[in-house]
Amino acid sequence: MLNDPQVLARITPGIQTLEEVAPDHYKAVSEVKIGPVKGRFSGDLRITDKNPEKSSVVELNQQSKIGNAKARITMGLHAIDDSHTEIQYSGEAQVSGMLARMGQRLIGGVVSSLSRQFFEALAREINQET
Amino acid sequence: MQISLTINGKSYSQEVEPRTSLAHFLRDTLDLTGTHIGCDTSSCGACTVLLDGKAVKSCTVLAVQADGSEITTIEGMANGDQLHPIQEAFQENHGLQCGFCTPGMVMTAADILANNPNPSEADIRHGLEGNFCRCTGYHNIVKSIQHAAEKMNS
Amino acid sequence: MENYIGKPIKRREDTRFLKGAGRYTDDIKLPHMAHVAFVRSPYAHAKILNIDTTAAAQAEGVIAIYTGADECGNFGVPCGWQVNFKNGDTMREPQHPLLAKEKVRHVGEAVAVVVAETQALARDAAELVEVEYEELPAVTNPKDAMQPGAPLVHDQWPDNAAFDWCIGNDRAEVEKALENAYHVTELEFINNRLAPNAIEPRSYIADYNVNDDKWTLYTSTQNPHLIRLLLCAFTLGLPEHKVRVVSYDVGGGFGSKIYHYTEEALVTWLSRQVGRPVKWTADRSEAFMTDAHGRDHVVKSKMGFDKDGKIVAHLTDEYCAMGAYLSTFAPAIPTYLHGTLFQGLYTTPLIHLNVVAPFTHTVPVDAYRGAGRPEATYLIERLISKAAIEMNMDPAEIRFKNFIPPFDGINQPGYQTQVALQYDSGNYAAALEKALEAAGYENFRKEQEEARQNGKLLGLGISTWIEGCGIAPSAVVGALGARAGLYEVGHVRVQPTGKVTVYTGTHSHGQGHETTFAQFVADKLGIPIEDVDIEHGDTNEVAFGMGTYGSRSLAVGGSAIVKSIDKVLEKGARIAAHKLEAAVEDLEYGDGKWTVKGTDKSISFGDVALTAYVPHDYPQGEEPGLDFSSFYDPVNFTFPFGAHICIVEVDADTGKVTIKRFITVDDVGNIINPMIVDGQIHGGVVQGIGQALLEEVAYDEGGQMITGSYMDYAMPRADDVPFIETHNTVTPCPHNPLGVKGAGEAGTIGATPAVVNAVIDALAHLGVRDIQMPLTPQRVWKAMQNNN
Question: How many CB pairs under 8 A join B and C?
């Protein structure tokens, strides 16, 4: 499910369009609000180091008028039992421009809230399918 | 969009772009350049005006939001050559140096004194929290407002 | 007769400011004026691969778009001070282009400019300019910039040093004295980078008139003539006599508006390109990214003492950031305005300072209120207070032991320091004695102990300070690398009716020259102050001028006016002698009239003025008119000094510092307007408190400025500070006619170390000896935990 771009687009907060340009390489347009600044981002989303049912890495390279963002998110899947899988994730992000000047100290908070939204949406998605 | 409002007792009816802030409307459209813009995050207070009697940062109010309201800017404080008691107090107490934050300080002072005619030093300092001054260290601004309170109460 | 000097005369300029009728540059609107927006780099260091302006060029209201590939990319703003390497190599001076060409070197550097019908449309179009960058690693800390392998700011040089420099005694001799010292106090810290933050953002309007082939530049500057000179002679190569630079009201400067910036040169160039007046006003975000910053020294220091607490030697090594390019006075700040004050107020016999000044991927660094002198004072005053704790001495006592004895510069000679300068006059112990008395120092230790018993952490910090103001004479500063003179011009025009217009080359952006200058002019001429008007800020009105910075206006600019007044009175006496049929030697001047000594025969200033302009009954061979201009080049700097005491309470649970009292004793020489001097001290002190407790421009590892707004950069607000208790001592300057020394920077210089010393004093019993500025609650709390 996590490898389906349509699902990813649906559950990733802020994503407006996600268009496949090559396998595991998407063009993404998103809109994110970070503290006082809100921006429309566009750029690349790549899934690398894909290790089905174990782990994958999402690399984001997004440009916007309020600054650019680069992020690398590692997701690991661990089967707990037949019906439960634990998702672990970690990531690092670099921002520039107005985002860095005015939003930097809020980014940690925004990342956790976006992550929470992502997993809530994922949970909804799973519940709908099952 | 067409807006109508009263500024310093005078009625205006004007076409504005919806994205125009009240601060830019006052400065650029009406040439009321006494209201200053010192930042882009509603932090400095240089643009403070009274909107229906309450101090607002005019950089954060859209001109269209002010439709139908009554605005007082620094230009509306004096009565001809007769300065408002707050303005007088600022001059008598050297409450200004470069003068750039001054309009916002005077308008904020008007708001502080309207809500509390006998403010303590702490009340005044708290009331000025939204206004930056880089010249005076606030010392003489606080003194000015204390003095203005005395004048207006006598 | 002194009717005005020494009195707190209310300011004349206030009326227009209080009515909202000030004339700041952004208030000016010219017919057909176009507006400018910049496209700025989001990266600290990157190659510019491509700039696509196609979409922007088609946007609504766009008049023109330029990039560094256009002619304007060939122009650069100059540096006004040259400091060479110790080995004699020439200072490395990169071109500072109006628009970046191949590379960007700090966040916010402009890469393209859009001219459009309105500001909003210019900004809309600027957003459509597509710039492709290749991001490169950046370095923002000046010490890191000098490590092997650090990213280079300018590729043409093998390392990032712009220059290195030293001053004082032989290093080996100083090191030896430290080895032999009874006690050595050490300190390592960063003097935090500050953003000056005048509340008025910079603003420029250029108006090229094709019919006259003349330019007018309206600019928010502290020194219009200097800007004209740099713009014409160095940046754009314009004919100086065809360029007028006007700066009416300026909303604060604090150093940041001294400099010649790329944007003002660019709007001047643009106005001719588009054939219309062109305006640019920075927003706050741009101000953070483009106004020159202050401080940013990485410091390592040792001060040696004998067993009585006398300083025997002082050795300091510093890395002082220059930023990506050399701003107008940048090289002078950590050198001639910094190292030359390492004597402080003390008799230190051996001093050595070594400075390395690297380029960094940051906004350029230049003078910010105090300029090099707060950094020197902070270092010396922290060292001596730390030494007092370590040597178990009283912080006042250790200072009294080391003060230079009083000297007035007339009966006793000036004091020759180990670091090139000769102090003019001083009585340093007197200032500290007065401050201690005002603070109630005798009882303080008892109160502190009692407070500790009750769980309250009280601390008292002392700092004493000295500053070199009104730097001059020109020949000396020229030998030190200044590329301009540092004299001043004062023009006194007596009108036929006896009214007086005074033109000064200095500039007031909050200092109140229109009042202070009128006070001494009226007194010297014996006329009512209402008859005197002070003009500044227009190159068409005043012959020349160096502007206002370094607390120089009254000492240098005021003295130039006094020179012209002397000439007016000399000529007036000849006219009066003719009218009174007396010899010049028999006349005396006072109360606005010339009187024949011992008689009641007199003629008023106004009658002489009228006679000068209607010379019917007139001395033979005398030129008509009563109008004199003078250039004044001082013989030396002036050296104001003082003592500040700060009392703080530190919250034991949170580490939050509250300033309970702040006491100043400043000796700024003679005082013309005590109200204005006090105001200067108040503001300066609060800026100094800002550096100590709140302010810091911070960069992340990639070179992004993460404190680029008022929400992220903490400046003092009204409830962060108490009333400031100001006092003075008066030790006149012996070498200028008004006996004045300068007051503009005093507060900032003395305050910062007083605050930090107070916090350390409050926590000393916990073993805390130093905390990195700004002393945020988190840092203070951590220091308390680490030492508990």
Answer: 185
